[in-house]
Amino acid sequence: MNMASETITLTVPDGTFSAYVARPAASPAPAVVVIQEIFGVNQVMRDTADALAAQGYLAVCPDLFWRIEPGIDITDQSEAEWKKAFELYNAFDVDKGVEDIAAAIDAVRADPGCTGKVGAVGYCLGGLLAFLTAARTDSDATVAYYGVGIEKHLAAAEQIVHPLMLHIAEQDGFVPPEAQALILQALKDHPQIEIHTYPGRDHAFARVGGEHYDAADAKAANGRTAAFFEKTLK
């Protein structure tokens, strides 16, 4: 598999931050910005970017925690790491995060290795950020996996003009049934939004190695995502 990875630096008005980049074998290619969970740009996120590169995308995963602490790279495997992850989550500025994603989209769109088509995919905290990315940036197509807190931002759906796919875990411990009901009610008839729910699944069912990982539904969700990007970006 002839793909290469590198780290690039992105610049925004209030500073610079890094992003992991996985380049596909063939260039130019459509691009996908990978939006991190609460564990930083860790192995799971790098593997996600590498998998997208293997599918023929220029994948970019920006370090969205850089304003709090650059270079966060932790796992979901210990109590101390979960504590750290929630501290970062609670200190995180969602609006600034979306601005950083917009900067990443602009940077990758200008990359000679990009066709000009750029999408985004986010998980957990990144799922909320993906929803807001669909509303506030010019991402051509966006996917949100088990986004936390989308129900607080439903008015933003009015601004969504490009395709958005949502993957919702029906037993998500961070998104209670009443929140899911609000999301489904508000978004189910939106012309640009496609929603898939996964009965019996808990938060992060697609995170390889995670406590709630479910191989069958992860494969189903990832297959839907792959077909969605194939249609909207290629």
Main sheet makeup? 8 strands, mixed
* Beta strand count: 8
Instruction: Give the domain tally.
Output: 1
Structural class: alpha/beta
The CATH architecture comes to: 3-Layer(aba) Sandwich
State the CATH topology.
Answer: Rossmann fold
General shape = globular
Task: Please indicate the percent range of residues in DSSP E strands (runs of 2 or more).
Answer: 15-25%
**Arithmetic mean pLDDT:** 97
Compact overview of the structure:
With 234 residues, the protein is α/β, with parallel strands linked by helices. It has helices spanning 43-54, 79-91, 94-109, 125-136, 177-187, 215-233, and strands spanning 4-12, 15-23, 29-35, 58-62, 114-123, 142-145, 164-169, 193-198.
